[in-house]
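User: what does the whole thing look like in 3D?
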Amino acid sequence: MSAAAVRLDGAGKVFNPGSDGEVIALQDISLTIEEREFVSLIGPSGCGKSTMLRLIGDLLTPTSGEVTVKGKQAHRARLDRDYGMVFQHATLLEWRTVAKNVQLPLEVMGYDKARRDVRTSELLELVQLEEFAEHYPWQLSGGMQQRVAIARALAFSPSILLMDEPFGALDEMTRERMQMELMAIWQQTDTTVIFVTHSIPEAVFLSTRVVVMSPRPGRISEMVAVDLPQPREFETREAPEFYAKLTEVREALRGFEVGR
Amino acid sequence: MTAVATTTAGAGKGPVRRFLDAYGPAILILPLGLVVWEGAVRVFDIKGFLLPKPSDIALAYETEGAFISGAAWVTLQEAVGGFAVGASLGFLIALATARWKAVQEGALPLAIAVNSAPIVALAPIFNAWFGSTNPLSKMAVVSVMVFFPVMINMTRGLRLVDPNELELMRSYAASDRAILRKVRLPNALPFLFTGLKIGAVLSLIGAIVAEYFGGPVKALGVYILQQSAGTRLAEAWAGIIIGTLMGIAFYLVIVIAERLAMPWHVTVRETRR
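Assistant: Here's the predicted 3D structure for the full assembly of 533 residues, as structure tokens:
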């Protein structure tokens, strides 16, 4: 039996422990994510979803419990370059062209120039930005910048893609198009995706599973399996089953939001 | 894919037209100012030892020009030499502070202390150390003056990095050295140039003022001081104007270097219409 893509075992995170500013960001999180799953983390601000993403990616260390990735410590997985990261803002380096931005991880990881160039053109084709290779980030729209960020995250074929509200800053139309593209990319690659979002329709449309979280302290309050047929298409959003899932997630979120 | 690369706003205009749009007002203001100055001195009959007429200054330059140019050359060398030393030191120490926390904790308070000192007051000390006619004594003053803005700005640039960029690099398991080379250094470039621009202007001020405390006979500061002491104000003004022009020229050299070094930066691409 192969190890799960990600396993959190009673994981918790306390910021500034023992001081006045102590914040329990996450408490007793246990979650197993299988390979090739697409899991969304959703919940109100302060529920710790971004913190959870960073625990998985070893950008933060848990103060309790354990995080394992493909059977190893999260730290080991980071050193093995198992993670691709995408943030809400594209976070492109403004002094690098589109192609050079996509190559950034490859340079860090010591790929030679020939391999970098091949990989870059493959990826720019994947996100349909071939003709913008020599442009600078400021010459691109927000949606295009985010596509470059996705191409960059996929450049070294990481097995796990960690996405922190990647489409949060985009307008609704661009957002839906980006969701379609992400779906296509996920279908084409063997990537496990963990996706933080504020948007219920986005979570339902993209995910195989939605993890609903509640704040203070951040914990998992409910899990909603989304068994809508794959591949998800334009019509998926109009199906009654889609609305049923939206309602299910909304109800799960409502419990604690109204309570406060 | 709807969005297309932004076109520059100045497209369609010829280069001459664009140049005039950008620099025309600045070019006009100078002769206008000279005319007003000349007129005011004549109309109000201001005495030459208070404020000489631009035409008198031009005459002074005609007779003294060769000497002033020679003196200016000496001063420029002091300024540029001191600038090179101070800027290099500022750059290197900023790099060291980014690399080693101990350096940061030790060097920053020291640098601030040095900057708070009236640096020009050090000129007599440096004269005693190196000899007042030795250009090194002026370069020393200049390098101390230039050091601080370069170091502080560079340090800020190395540290003020988007936290997401750092997370990104960490997610690649990038080494500190790779983060320095690929993120912190390019990120610091605009800050470095800000420091260099301040330093360029300071370097000429530093060199000239340091010469007031004694210097070789042929040096701009000494010349200005002697002429004004002898109430040869037109000659002194000729020296001041040459000093100013050198300061502007040095500043512009840095601005050009900045544009060449970082064509991507927002300050450069906006003025490139």
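In plain terms: The interface with chain A takes residues 1-3, 5-6, 162, 164-165, 167-174, 178, 182-183, 186, 189, 262, 264-266, 269 of chain B (CB under 8 Å). The domain at 50-271 of chain B is CATH 1.10.3720.10 (MetI-like fold).
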